[in-house]
Design goal:
Number of domains: 2
Distance between the termini: 11 Å
Structural class: alpha/beta
Number of helices: 9
Strand content: 25-35%
Number of strands: 18
Largest sheet: 7 strands, mixed
Shape: globular
Bound molecules: zinc ion
CATH class of the largest domain: Alpha Beta
Length: about 325
């Protein structure tokens, strides 16, 4: 099968003919129809995330059809449309798994990082971590929901009942979260790269009450802010935009260093927290919300072979919405 393969961080992906995956016990093989391009993929390619499996097939926003079932698989069948996300496997017995926090498992596998993912014609996955998907939306439209949507939703959940919600970095995750937040009756304040009028207009089209540069203060103090941009200097800016008792949620897996800032900006019971990975429960909850909330994704599709082009556009901030590879 064809696959886009990472041989070494810091080098472009290479189109290769590789052995197709087989379904081991409790695994399925999924024929890839669409695979989203996530900022995390960029962090793996650029070497920000260390120790990937090498050579590696990236991609953890996979939509496709089950084409093979391994021994012992239940609940999935041949031809079923399913999604594969970032959390590919957990140990099931560490203290975090026992606490119901499988997103923090001590011995996890991550799709497209420590096991092969979806930048290929097919992908094998642990059947317990595969989500059945509704029929209706196209494969490409569903793909970004599997990470941008899921981790975005987990980040939104950490904001509690915040009514005035700031979102820093208005890309794939933000454009999904903004729609869910509006559905929940929250007001969205969108922060983009300073001067990025296209992104600000995009945010307003998605129902943001206000859109401006990340160097600006919002017209009202925020109850909570989510930072999706991988830029540590946004943390003090977001704290300054947030009211007493408010929370700043860092939704990305990697960020540049957070600069020092006056303690007074944290004082007043403000909180900073990160969000790591997702649980299967997050996935089920979010996917059940997509229909009622009327979530629509804005996607730009690229043929599988053009994965490097899609990654470059994401790196350069040239995408509105999400990039998706299609077969
Ligand atoms: Zn575990
Ligand atoms: Zn992702």
């Amino acid at each position: 099968m064809r696959a886009m393969v990472l041989e070494k961080p810091g080098t472009p992906l290479e189109l290769r003919e590789v052995e197709p995956p087989k379904a081991g016990p409790l695994e399925v093989v999924v024929d890839m129809a669409a695979c989203g391009v996530c900022r995390t993929d960029l962090h793996v390619v650029d070497g920000d995330l260390v120790d990937p499996k090498l050579p590696l097939i990236l991609g953890h926003e996979i939509v496709g059809r089950v084409s093979a079932l391994g021994e012992g698989v239940t609940g999935l069948h041949h031809g079923m449309r399913v999604g594969i996300s970032w959390l590919g496997h957990t140990c099931g017995h560490c203290r975090y798994c026992n606490l119901g926090a499988e997103n923090l498992c001590d011995a996890p596998l991550f799709t497209g990082y420590t096991r092969d993912g979806g930048y290929a014609e097919a992908c094998a996955a642990d059947a317990a971590y595969v989500f059945p998907l509704p029929e209706g939306p196209s494969d490409a439209e569903l793909a970004p929901l599997l990470c941008a949507g899921l981790i975005g939703h987990r980040s939104l959940r950490m904001c509690g009942d915040a009514e005035r919600l700031g979102i820093y970095g208005f890309g794939a995750a933000a454009h999904i979260v903004a729609q869910v937040a509006r559905y929940q009756g929250r007001r969205v304040f969108a922060f983009t790269r300073p001067g990025d009028e296209a992104a600000q207009k995009f945010a307003e089209q998605l129902g943001a009450s206000w859109a401006g540069g990340s160097d600006q203060l919002p017209p009202e103090a925020l109850d909570a802010a989510i930072i999706f941009a991988p830029v540590g200097s946004l943390v003090p800016l977001a704290l300054r935009a947030t009211r007493k008792g408010g929370i700043v949620v860092c939704g990305g897996i990697h960020m540049s260093d957070v600069p020092s800032f006056p303690y007074a900006d944290l004082w007043g019971e403000r909180q900073i927290r990160s969000v790591a990975n997702l649980t299967r429960q997050d996935g089920e909850e979010f996917l059940s919300l997509v229909g009622p909330a009327g979530v629509k994704t804005e996607v730009q599709t690229f043929p599988l072979e053009q994965a490097n082009v899609a990654l470059d556009r994401l790196r350069d901030g040239q995408l509105l919405g999400a990039a998706v590879l299609v077969n």
